[in-house]
Amino acid sequence: MNVRIHDSWKKALESEFEEDYFKNLIEFVKQEYSEHKCFPPAPQIFAAFDHSKFEDTKVVILGQDPYHGSGQANGLCFSVNNGVSFPPSLKNIFREIENDLGKPVPITGNLERWADQGVLLLNATLTVREGQAGSHQKKGWETFTDKVIKTISEEKENVVFMLWGGYAQKKVKLIDDSKHLILTSGHPSPLSANRGYWFGNKHFSKANDYLQKTGKKAIDW
């Protein structure tokens, strides 16, 4: 398995690819994909980076694990392939956008359209075994994606980081809040959203206001 990642990220992250933990991680992933059904499909493992180039990234949304059901994961956090019914968290994301911006719920849950505008849809763990949530956690992915977050924080300015739920909010320590906007709230999963920790956070309008104030184009959510 070759590490296929967009050239714009290679410069920022190439030193990571030489680290022992990363080499061990890739060997683990190779073995898992050869012995089990895993998601996303191998060519889409680094899809988040392919769609949102380093220089174009202006929003980062952090998820935890890819979807582990057949045909769902496409390498972008919270996103599903065209024609796949919306998982509960994604439904709540679209409901919040509708409430916040008045935009109708889209017909597809494929978020490539966000990613192509510079929204890095990054899972902390980039792979998973079918039907086994969290099965590829603590194998090295988190070390790599923490480095991604830190690199964006250090080398870019005026990026919006959306950290939803306790797990994502632990990443605050990796981000320089003096030159970026950090938006935190409960997770969009029903458990959190139904307790009042998600709806009304207005993260999508807040992100666009900040981007426009800092001379960037707003995201068409």
Automatic annotation (TrEMBL):
It catalyses: Hydrolyzes single-stranded DNA or mismatched double-stranded DNA and polynucleotides, releasing free uracil. One of its GO terms (biological process) is base-excision repair, AP site formation via deaminated base removal. Pfam families: UDG. Its main location: cytoplasm. Keywords: Cytoplasm, DNA damage, DNA repair, Glycosidase, Hydrolase. It is found in: Cytoplasm. Transmembrane segments: none annotated. Residues 49-211 form the Uracil-DNA glycosylase-like domain. It comes from the Bacteria. Its EC number is 3.2.2.27. The keyword Secreted does not apply. The active site is at D65. Signal peptide: none annotated. GO terms for cellular component: cytoplasm. GO terms for molecular function: uracil DNA N-glycosylase activity. InterPro entries: UDG_fam1, Ura-DNA_Glyclase_AS, Uracil-DNA_glycosylase-like, Uracil-DNA_glycosylase-like_sf. Excises uracil residues from the DNA which can arise as a result of misincorporation of dUMP residues by DNA polymerase or due to deamination of cytosine. Belongs to the uracil-DNA glycosylase (UDG) superfamily. UNG family. PANTHER family: URACIL-DNA GLYCOSYLASE. HAMAP family: UDG. NCBIfam families: PRK05254.1-1, PRK05254.1-2, PRK05254.1-4, PRK05254.1-5, ung. This is Uracil-DNA glycosylase. The gene is ung.
